[in-house]
Structure formats: C-alpha cells, structure tokens
Write a structure and sequence with these properties.
Layout lengths: L4 E5 L5 H10 L6 E6 L1 H4 L4 H7 L5 E7 L3 H10 L7 E5 L4 H10 L4 E5 L7 H7 L5 H14 L4 E3 L5 H5 L5 E4 L17 H7 L3 E4 L1 H4 L3 H13 L1
Parallel strand pairs: 1-2, 1-8, 2-3, 3-4, 4-5, 5-6, 6-7, 7-8
Helix pairs in contact: 4-5
This protein binds cytidine-5'-monophosphate.
Cytidine-5'-monophosphate binds next to strand 8 and helix 10.
C-alpha cells in the first residue's frame, strides 16, 4: 500500500529543536518530508544547516511574493541548497510565476493560494471581493496556466482545486481537534487525505509536546 505523506513544519529558530523534530519523526508507516519556513531559514544557523541536510525531502517555504525579477533571482540564489519543493504566492502574478518556473529546474515550484489562516471576513478586510472558494479556484487556474508543479490550499478546497489543477496538492491547516491556533480553514488528517490531498503539512500538532507520541497518534488516527 502507498504510504501517506506529510511535511513536518520545522518552525523554530533553534537547531537543536529542529534536529529533535527530525529524529523523533522517523517511522516506517508514513513518508515524512521536512518543511523549513521563514523562521528557520532566517535564523543564524538555519541556512548552513539546510545546506548540509542529506537524504530528506526538503520543502523550503520561502513564500516568494515579489516582482518577476526578484523571484527569479532568489531561485538562482538558493540553487546551492538541495531542496525539492519551493513556494511562491500565486498572487505574485502570472508573469512572476512563469519567470520563476522557468529557472526552478528540478525544484518543484508550489503555488500558494489563500493562506489557511484567512477566512472570508479576513479577505474582505484586505479588500478582496471574492470569497475564499472562488479565489482559490481562480488561483488554481493561474497555477495551471503557469505550469506550476504543486499547489498549497486548505484541505477544505481540495476537491474544488482538483477540477482545474491535476498535479500535487499540499494542505496545511491540519488539526486533530478544535484547537486551531491561528488557522481558520482546518480539517483532520483523515478528512484531508479523503478529499484527495497528496501531502499534509503539520506543524504544532506534531512538534509541540511529545513528538514521538504525536506521530503515533497520527498513525493510529489514520488507521481507524
Ligand atoms: O503549526 P501548523 O500546523 O499550523 O503549521 C502550518 C505550517 O504551514 C506553517 O509552517 C505555516 O507557515 C504553513 N502554511 C500555512 N498555510 C498556508 C501555507 C503555509 O499554514 N497557506
């Protein structure tokens, strides 16, 4: 049977903590990749650590959101890192997406749709006049046009996104229970896979408390 896949979000500026996350999440039941975001990559030891990390599926969650030239140059600047996945906000625009895809080579370029911490009210506050579902669908079409390799959306929108985007779908905003922290559009791991997510992104529900126990809880939850 194919293994379920998760990216564990290594959201810390502490190398020791990140090393602990990596060692405690090793298991034979689930395929685990590691996501490094702005906090870790910008920390003092973060980039050097990443440059030495081997034999792991690495997701650099840089969430590029800039003009085409800057996005493109950033990809060139991180080429020494052996990363497998990299994020760019789809709202950077079609031109930036295409320009970045052109130089990303073997790195899978992931388009980030509307952040899972935003709901319809938050979108209205920003000034968008489409609701979450309509915007995510619209952006999934753009990701398809730009030939991106993967998309990030909430697990609640996977079925919708699948109608227009046929490649990998990665979903953060995963919770076992109602403790959603700052996330607004959440689903359980089981629901997320059922909807068709290829990869889940899980941070705090795995990395806070007893990491080994949390991974076992996830395995048990999925086997029920
Ligand atoms: O701790 P939690 O499980 O909420 O972590 C989710 C991770 O996924 C964080 O690292 C966050 O930056 C990232 N993410 C997200 N929503 C997106 C894109 C990325 O939560 N739309």
């Amino acid at each position: 049977m194919k293994k379920n896949k998760i990216f564990v979000a290594c959201d810390s500026a502490n190398i020791l903590k990140v090393k602990r996350i990596i060692s405690k999440t090793q298991n034979s039941k689930i395929k685990v990749g590691y996501k490094f975001g702005l906090e870790f990559i910008n920390s003092k030891g973060g980039r050097p650590f990443l440059s030495k990390l081997k034999n792991k599926t690495i997701f650099a969650d840089l969430k590029l959101h800039d003009i085409p030239n800057t996005c493109e140059s950033t990809v060139k600047a991180i080429k020494d890192l052996k990363i497998n996945y990299l994020t760019i906000h789809i709202s950077s625009g079609l031109e930036a997406l295409k320009a970045t895809k052109k130089v990303s080579g073997k790195i899978k370029l992931i388009g980030v749709t509307i952040l899972t911490s935003l709901d319809n009210k938050a979108l209205k506050d920003i000034g968008f006049n489409k609701n979450v579902k309509k915007l995510v669908l619209h952006q999934a079409r753009m990701a398809n046009k730009a030939k991106l390799d993967a998309i990030v959306c909430s697990a609640q929108e996977v079925k919708l996104v699948k109608k227009v985007f046929k490649k990998e779908i990665i979903t953060p905003g995963i919770r076992f229970n109602s403790k959603s922290n700052d996330q607004k559009r959440v689903l359980t791991p089981k629901q997320a896979y059922k909807n068709g997510s290829d990869w889940l992104v899980m941070g705090r529900p795995i990395t806070k408390g007893n990491i080994k126990k949390n991974i076992q809880n996830l395995i048990d939850h999925l086997s029920k």
